[in-house]
Amino acid sequence: MISQKLARLTSGRVHYAWIVLVVMFTAMLAGVGVRAAPGVMIVPLEHAFGWDVATISGAVSINIILLGATGPFLTGLIDGFGLKNTILSCMAVLMAGTGLSIFMTAPWELFVTWGLMVGIGSGAGAVGMAAAVSNRWFAERTSLAMGLLTAANAAGQLVFLPLLAWLADRFGWQGVAIGVTIAMGVSLPMLAILLPESPASVGLGAYGAAEIWQAPPRRGNPFAVAFNALGRGARSLDFWLLVVSFGICGFSTNGLINTHLIAYCADHGIPEIRGAGILAVIGVFSLIGSAASGWLCDRYNPRILLFWYFGLRGLSLVLLPFSQFDVLSLSVFAVFYGLDWVATGPAIFALTNEVFGRRDSPVLVAWIFAGHQVGGALAAIGAGAVRDFTGTYLLAFLASGLACFCASLLVLRVSRGALAVAPAE
């Protein structure tokens, strides 16, 4: 295997865990490009087919829900099917969904491709998968690894959104679908060649581990693994505090900003390409914020960090509708909001590891992330309905900001648990 040869070649200089991190980061860039694409497709689809915002948002909400709902089972599938095979299969479904959407002409086809198939395939880059990679390959700097993988969501917007907006402006929505399909086609071979199943499979221990360690396989099918973990988590108040808090996170990020910010800017006379540029700026600062959050979570109490992340995010969302929507106010929002946009991911992961242990945390994080996606779906379809009914996104942004203030208080209630020291899986 090329990965085994590369691991031997880099031995003593760079631990192969960092190469795995780069490979997964790159693959997740392509995946988040797909998930970000609906933000630049809303207006072109309106113009091409006459579909209203609520209909298009409905398809987006399905893929957001499925990304969360399938996450625990896909993470549970890792035990029997393997981490590498699971990720490759998801990305193949994702590529098929975007590729087939090129030929759609009816709303139901939008729901099948960008709703069903993209929702399932996006599981390759979901939080549960990132958690499994981080815990499997890192015994130390685990939160930093998670922060960097979470940052791929931000960098994906940086890389893709301006290009996708240009494609939408030049070639319409089909240009966007073709672009993201090509990106997925490039990512699949790279993953197949460079991603090993585990550190032990290339003769290494996890980064920071003193010896090579392979977790014994768990018995049961993916559904049993997922529901057993859920049963353990559901008996804990901490689990529900994390689910609700992360649900509010989704309510205030991918469901609202990812899906509707470009359309909100268009309401104020800002062209799509400039709106996508604002999201790209948010992406730049989200990359910085998420990586910094991972570094901080390895050193400080993630509860206190989350208190500030949610509080500052809520403040930015409440103030935006009352700004002038000029270059200065949007730039300030992009920086302020961007720094803590995905910074919550590493902190939630760190808390889950702390409270429930590293063995079960990938599946539990996937369940918690399901709450995130439910919140995102509610915001995606709810904000669209609010826009259609009132003619403005004002109420959607105010509701999201107030919810963030509530989340900042909820996370302080999560109890302290014993850290698990053994690498997972």
Describe the structure.
This protein is mostly helical and 425 residues long. The protein has one domain: MFS general substrate transporter like domains (Growth Hormone, Chain: A). The protein is 77% helix and 0% strand. The protein has 19 helices and no strands. The protein has helices spanning 2-10, 16-36, 38-49, 53-69, 71-81, 83-101, 107-121, 127-137, 142-171, 173-194, 222-234, 237-251, 254-267, 272-297, 302-319, 327-339, 344-356, 361-390, 394-410. Helix 5 (71-81) packs across helix 6 (83-101) and helix 14 packs parallel to helix 16 (327-339). The longest helix has 30 residues, at 142-171. The radius of gyration is 20 Å and the shape is globular. The model is unreliable at 418-425 (pLDDT under 50).
Descriptive terms for the model:
about 425 residues; mainly alpha; about 75% helix; disordered C terminus
Rg, nearest Å? 20 Å
CATH class: Mainly Alpha
Give a count of the beta strands, DSSP E runs of length 2 or more: 0
As an assembly, this protein is single chain
Shape: globular
Count up the domains: 1
Major beta sheet, specifics? none
For CATH, the homologous superfamily is named as MFS general substrate transporter like domains
SSE succession: HHHHHHHHHHHHHHHHHHH
Question: Taking all residues together, what is the mean pLDDT?
Answer: 85
> Poorly predicted ranges (pLDDT <50, ≥5 residues)?
418-425
Helix content, binned percent? over 70%
